[in-house]
């Protein structure tokens, strides 16, 4: 397997030092190698719009804050650490399942928005996406907590990338269930925990709900819901649903992640297998261990 971690640091520095009217064009050029991230979005997604939705660093304000954040990413050797973590994780997955081939991937690391309240207060300064085979995306504000979790976040997304690679688990946006999504997050967290321990391996937004029985039971009632347009509230919580035009269902932020971890932990305990051995475990089988 080959991981191409795009060297976005110098490009972001050039963008932030450029005249404001030139920044969008420079950013579009920097993002183009990872445009395949959005190949299944309807129409022709605008890379600048997707960056803003991220939310990536702003082009019209907060330049000094963004430059300080970029400096911290560079001092933390973020790009090198991510590449090393991905190679280690891919080797582990392929050893656990000799018939598995982890796909090559292009990795896009982008500095997050320094002052976006939703990004910091709800997402805790981190968003990431590994659901598109061949691409990994990490949007990070370099707080100490997020810098400590860089490797764990990267291998979590790699787990998704490998699970949904061609020939593995099929992700059909029209028919996929909340249960598949929730289980996939639990498997990805369990894999990150296998490599980096519980403290770093759990997705931060799900940690406060890890032992909340009421939230767990509520998520279970939505496992058969289909269609990605309905997923925000069930997986991420009502705040995300409201932000992105979905319908709230009475769940706090991170509910699906917490439930996924519980489902997968029960499954691993019953089967005696490791997370790296269960990359392709059917969601229905994982759910049946608990329900």
Detailed description of the structure:
The protein is an alpha/beta fold. It has 2 domains: 1-154, no CATH class; 169-291, no CATH class. 53% of the residues lie in helices and 7% in strands. Residues 99-287 form the DUF2268 domain.
Number of strands: 4
Helical coverage, percent range: 40-55%
Structural class by secondary-structure content: alpha/beta
* β-sheet strand percentage: 5-15%
Organism: Pseudonocardia autotrophica (Amycolata autotrophica)
Protein name: DUF2268 domain-containing protein
Domain DUF2268: 99-287
In short:
Residues 99-287 form the DUF2268 domain. This protein is α/β, with parallel strands linked by helices and 291 residues long.
Q: What descriptive keywords fit this protein?
A:
291 residues, alpha/beta, four-stranded mixed beta sheet, 14 helices, 53% helix
Task: Show the helix and strand layout.
Elements: E1 3-5, H1 8-17, H2 20-31, H3 47-53, H4 63-75, H5 78-96, E2 105-111, H6 117-122, E3 126-129, E4 135-140, H7 144-148, H8 150-163, H9 178-201, H10 213-220, H11 231-236, H12 238-243, H13 255-271, H14 283-288
Parallel strand pairs: 1-2, 2-4
Antiparallel strand pairs: 3-4
């Amino acid at each position: 397997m080959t991981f191409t971690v795009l060297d976005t640091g110098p490009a972001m520095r050039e963008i932030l030092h450029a005249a404001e009217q030139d920044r969008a064009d420079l950013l579009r050029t920097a993002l183009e190698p990872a445009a395949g991230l959005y190949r299944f979005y309807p129409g022709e997604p605008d890379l600048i719009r997707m960056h803003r939705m991220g939310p990536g660093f702003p082009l019209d304000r907060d330049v000094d804050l963004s430059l300080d954040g970029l400096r911290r990413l560079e001092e933390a050797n973020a790009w090198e650490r991510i590449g090393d973590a991905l190679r280690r994780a891919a080797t582990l997955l392929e050893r656990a399942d000799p018939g598995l081939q982890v796909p090559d991937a292009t990795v896009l690391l982008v500095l997050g928005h320094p002052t976006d309240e939703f990004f910091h207060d709800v997402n805790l300064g981190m968003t990431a996406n590994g659901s598109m085979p061949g691409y990994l995306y990490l949007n990070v504000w370099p707080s100490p907590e997020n810098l400590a979790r860089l490797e764990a976040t990267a291998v979590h997304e790699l787990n998704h990338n490998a699970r949904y690679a061609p020939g593995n688990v099929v992700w059909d946006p029209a028919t996929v269930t909340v249960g598949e999504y929730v289980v996939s997050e639990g498997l990805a967290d369990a894999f990150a925990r296998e490599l980096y321990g519980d403290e770093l391996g759990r997705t931060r937004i799900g940690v406060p709900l890890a032992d909340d029985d009421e939230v767990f039971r509520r998520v279970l009632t939505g496992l058969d819901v289909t269609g990605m347009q309905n997923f925000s509230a069930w997986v991420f919580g009502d705040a995300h649903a409201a932000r992105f035009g979905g319908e709230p269902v009475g769940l706090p932020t991170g509910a699906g992640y917490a439930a996924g971890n519980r489902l997968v932990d029960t499954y691993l305990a019953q089967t005696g297998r490791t997370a790296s051995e269960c990359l392709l475990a059917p969601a229905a089988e994982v759910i049946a261990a608990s329900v």
